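Working notes for the structural subgroup meeting. M.R. asked for a predicted model of this chain before we commit to crystallization trials. I am recording the input and output together here so anyone reviewing the notebook later can reproduce the run.

Input as submitted:
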Amino acid sequence: MSDAALAIKGLSKSFGGVRAITDVSLAVPEGSLTAVIGPNGAGKTTLFNLVTNLYAADSGAIDFQGRSIRGLSPGAIARLGLIRTFQSARIFPGMTARENALAGAHMHLGVATWKHMLWLNSARREERSLAAKADRLLELVGLAVFRDVAATDLPMGAQKMLEVVRALMAEPRLLLLDEPAAGLNDAETAELAALLRAVRDSGITLIVVEHNMSLVMGVADQVVVLDAGSIVAAGTPRAIQQDKRVIAAYVGSEA
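Returned structure, recorded in token form:
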């Protein structure tokens, strides 16, 4: 695990008497795309919540880029470059698609806030640079035509893609995507797959929670299967497709 972008060891979490995550250990190689799959209620989103400290883990270690992040605030974790999205698109109301994308860059503003308030030349240059970057990303995911449209007026699939764009504006080193294909049609899913490959090829490490098996098997370098809060299998997409434990977790097994 020493050279992993993210290393999790012995992670556990209970809610009351219910064990949500049990002794999960996982290494995510730098520059890879790891998919986390499993039936509903398997603990996939809870795992993301523990990594980003929205939930405090009961036990275990979480190392990002060789540094322990367990106990850090979600904001501090994000500033280290570990960025996430959520199952439901979290779009800022009252803002256009472009403005939503620009919101993702707030941690990387190099010009002082007071200079932005006075709209000095340095602030204008930074604003133009960020706007150009946002426009390129919106173009990449097919949302350029909606640049000036209220983000809440976009279809759900477009809102999901916009959330990915906003996450990329934050310049992540590791990007956690929670069901990015939810609400996407086949054409949009194909565009998402191309985007995920391009992000990985740019050097950003990705972990994707996803139910769309066609997407997972087409883009993942490794697949991790959770069931009832525990890892039951991990390996290449081909190996996972043939794993009897995975089949049992999804469709059950005969008595």
